[in-house]
Amino acid sequence: MDTHAFFREKLLTWFAQNHRPMPWKAENDPYRIWLSEIILQQTRVEQGMPYYLNFIERFPDVTQLANAPEDEVLKAWEGLGYYSRARNLHETAKFISGELKGVFPDSYTAIRALKGVGDYTAAAIASFAFGLPHAVLDGNVYRVLSRFWGIETPTDTPKAKKEFAALAQQLLPSERPGDFNQAIMDLGATVCTPRLPQCTSCLLHPECCAFRLNKTGELPIKSKIRSKRIVFSSTSWSITANKRWCKNAKAKISGATCTSFPCSKQHRYRPTTMKYCNACPGIFLMGNYPPARNLAPYPNRIDKPLPTGGSPQFLAK
Ligand code: SF4
Question: How do the pLDDT tens digits run along the chain, 317 residues long?
């Protein structure tokens, strides 16, 4: 059996035994699937579930949603945040109810053209509601594919989007594309998790690159560094001439103190913010360079906690 066939077969076998029951999963009503996908766009399943059930009860079909006053729709949405989603939902419901005479579009292109529907949501609706062969690509899919195939392309790049989309599409079976899409997302959410994936109980492990090479902690790779704001408590900070690093600056962040900060040029200035990388503890990025200097953030890895104390101090906020 080739690797593609192995992946497909094991994934669908696992899904048959382990799929997570959700109220929208047994559905093939595109209205309900669309509703669940819009609600879950920036919301966890546990948080979105009661909203979905409430929407279905108050607006059982697209026409009833379209005919509801916007205030009522926004009220039902209250607490979910990102209210543009609710407005787009309402506007799209009016479009389907009016222009399309209440008939939900049944092609990928027409679904993708709906307001508030991106590539992922269009593929999800097309495959779940209409059995169309369009592969979904979300964080879970990136993780499973990256680990199984040992793909090291940073997943937050346009190149990766093309590469992973093409692979997911190749893997998608022409029969049961909706189950396959759901299976890979469920596996990523429950087994091939970001931390501590359950490889030994995963049916894919005999052929999984990350498992065989012990690289589950390294994959998938991201190029962008997430950061949070750090506020300086000092009033000034000077960079010593001809020195690449400012040796006298100190920061106390997450229990470690850094005694050198990066600087790619000789200059003197008063920085007001720094960034601390959440993903890679120990990496600090300079922020708020004088705009004229236009310097790119420059990473500096601190491998071990350094002695605390000294001045100036930079405190995490
Ligand atoms: S074996 Fe481990 S890393 Fe590979 S797909 Fe399964 S859970 Fe993910």
Answer: 799 999 999 999 999 999 778 888 878 899 999 999 999 988 888 899 999 999 999 999 999 999 999 999 999 999 988 889 999 999 999 999 999 999 999 999 999 999 999 999 999 999 999 999 999 999 999 999 999 999 999 998 999 999 999 999 999 999 999 999 999 999 999 999 998 999 999 999 999 999 999 999 999 998 754 433 333 323 223 332 222 333 333 333 333 333 334 433 333 333 333 333 333 333 333 333 333 333 333 333 333 333 333 333 333 32
Q: What's the whole-model pTM score?
A: 0.71
Q: How far is Cα 59 from Cα 267, in angstroms, rounded to an integer? A: 62
Say how far apart CA 78 and CA 85 lie, in whole Å.
12
Contacts of 280 (CB under 8 A, 6+ apart): 225, 301
CATH architecture of 3-212: Orthogonal Bundle (1.10)
Q: What six digits make up the tokens of 227?
A: 């950061």
Examine the residue annotation and report whether 37 is marked as an active-site residue of this protein. yes
**Probe residue for ligand 1, chosen from 18, 192, 207 as the CB with the greatest number of ligand atoms within 8 Å:** 192
User: 206 alpha carbon to ligand 1 midpoint, in Å?
Assistant: 9
Residues touching ligand 1 (Cβ under 6 Å) are 144, 147-148, 191-192, 197-199, 202, 204-205, 208, 210-211, 216
> Which residues of the chain does CATH 1.10.340.30 include?
3-212
